[in-house]
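Quick one, probably user error.
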């Protein structure tokens, strides 16, 4: 199974943040989307970042903080509206189910139709399932995805939730006649039957632990200098757990971080008018000479020589 580092596609997060800002959901609050993101160390405005993912645990903290700044009805309306817009603007109808799973922290997804109706169930990692906001977010986005592929998909007639906290759910004051069952083994949305038979089971593609760490670290490169302790805190993992997992794949956290930092520096030096000192500062090096030595140790040439060859 490997390290439990759930990830979410940065495009989904950016779209959610953009909608939050444009519709001014926080207009009556003392905060802003950028401030809430900063408070929980969630990257904001990632259009220029080469990162593909954001750690979902950090996004979950953002959702929790957001819930505290909105009324229960506003929060649930925001989730529903954001999912509907994402289905159109991120073109869910063009995504295969495997591509959809690549965007969200869902391990496997099962769709089956029986005499009682259609059920769509999925499993999340333990850390994701511990927050009711996260589970609701995944439910509404999963519904939006399948609605974009099956026009005759009706309204849900039952929800099975992994969360055990009825208190967390009641805080959202969701007024619905649809039954909700807590403490289930997997999240499940049940619907009236479709006219067309629909059955499938899909497993999310596996990542190496090195890839998980790299993907979770990537959005912070050049923005925030994360050490191993901070990375572990953000992803709710023990330091030794990560060190042991990376050691089994013959690498270290420092090596993963340096590789990402050098990729960032090459992209910036080639495309933008930043000095080597500016890049070194962005990457958290004490000074330019320290960055130059590290770069040359790995690449065999200095950043200046690399820039000259690739400009």
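Nope, works fine. Designed sequence:
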């Amino acid at each position: 199974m490997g390290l439990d580092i759930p990830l979410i596609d940065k495009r989904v997060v950016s779209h959610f943040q953009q909608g939050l800002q444009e519709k001014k959901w926080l207009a009556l609050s003392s905060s802003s989307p950028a401030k809430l993101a900063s408070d929980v160390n969630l990257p904001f405005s990632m259009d220029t970042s080469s990162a593909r993912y954001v750690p979902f645990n950090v996004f979950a903290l953002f959702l929790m903080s957001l819930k505290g700044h909105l009324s229960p009805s506003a929060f649930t309306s925001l989730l529903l509206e954001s999912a509907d817009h994402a289905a159109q603007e991120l073109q869910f109808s063009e995504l295969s189910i495997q591509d959809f799973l690549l965007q969200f922290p869902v391990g496997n997804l099962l769709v089956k139709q029986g005499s009682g109706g259609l059920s769509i169930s999925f499993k999340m990692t333990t850390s994701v399932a511990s927050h009711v906001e996260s589970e609701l977010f995944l439910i509404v986005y999963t519904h939006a995805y399948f609605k974009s592929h099956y026009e005759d998909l009706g309204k849900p007639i039952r929800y099975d939730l992994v969360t055990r906290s009825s208190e967390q759910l009641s805080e959202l004051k969701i007024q619905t006649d649809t039954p909700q069952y807590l403490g289930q083994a997997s999240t499940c949305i049940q619907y009236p039957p479709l006219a067309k038979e629909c059955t499938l089971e899909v497993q999310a593609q596996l990542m190496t632990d090195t890839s998980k760490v790299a993907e979770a670290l990537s959005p912070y490169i050049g923005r925030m200098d994360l050490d191993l302790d901070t990375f572990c805190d953000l992803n709710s993992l023990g330091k030794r757990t990560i060190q042991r997992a990376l050691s089994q794949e013959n690498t270290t956290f420092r090596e993963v971080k340096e590789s990402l930092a050098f990729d960032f520096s090459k992209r910036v030096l080639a495309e933008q008018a930043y000095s080597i000192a500016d890049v070194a500062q962005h990457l958290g090096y004490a000074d330019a000479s320290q960055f130059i030595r590290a770069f040359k140790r790995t690449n065999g040439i200095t950043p200046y020589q690399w820039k000259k060859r690739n400009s």
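The chain has 15 helices and eight strands.
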